[in-house]
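Protein modeling request. Please complete all fields; requests missing the sequence field cannot be processed.
Requester role: graduate student
Desired output: 3D structure, token encoding
Chains: 1
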Amino acid sequence: FGFPQASSSEQIRDFIVSIPQTEAKSFLDKQFFQTSTIKAKASQNPITTFKERNEVFIDVIEQIIVLFNSSNSIISSYVNGCVRVKSYLTGTPKLSMTFSDEANLSNISFHETVDDSQFKNSRSLALTPLIGESCIMRYRLKDGFVVPFKIFPFLNLESPYKLEILLKIRSEYPKDISAKSITIRFKLPEVMSSVNFELEKDSKSEKATHKESLKEVEWKIEGLQGDTERSLTTKISLLKEVSMYQLRKDIGPIKLSFEMNQMNLSGLKLPKVDLDGTDIEKPKKWIRYISNSDSYVVRL
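Delivered output (300 residues):
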């Protein structure tokens, strides 16, 4: 009749290692638990062993929220960040990390286990990592960063019954960085009768589809290098004559989702990470920087 303190499987799975034993036989054993029943051996073993791993993962994860108007100017933009620690360390380790000074962060908050007394002076934190995964620091960035993508939509009503949408996406980050899992979505007009797509000739990693149940277009790009531009032409046949104002309203905003590894928009870096107090010497330290979209919207 206790109260659960940790509900995350990452935090508790390494403690569930005991093998269930039957204390006494009963009538129920004979009726329902026959010897032919297959034993669940997987539940008897721990999923991981700290002594074998002795490593820590530190992820700096940033989610960008951007809203563009119909002229492609930014209405609002900010980044929500989280420094996440996933620990598989032995003993009673002490983790200290120092952050770079370049990032202009605001709304900074820390996990209750973090000693942030030196953060203002030296941009350093100290903590004893919790077993499993936890977000030790949250922050926000309101300005001072370059948005990773620009989207340029062009609508052309070729005739009263034919609409052409030319959609261009341009990557604004350096050439040596690549984004992946890029997906662009927009709605189709209610009076649409058919739709066709034209991709660029070298578009091997791209695919445009019509999601009939959702009445929308989905354009997927597996990977996109920095300083690159791609385009999609969508040709739509209409059942009846409709004004351009109504067509823009039906199609609505264009939405973008993506993920970028080893890059964060704030410029926050971890040049120094120290570990002390582990049972095994030289524990492994892994640091990743991940940026992805939370809400990336372009109005028409």
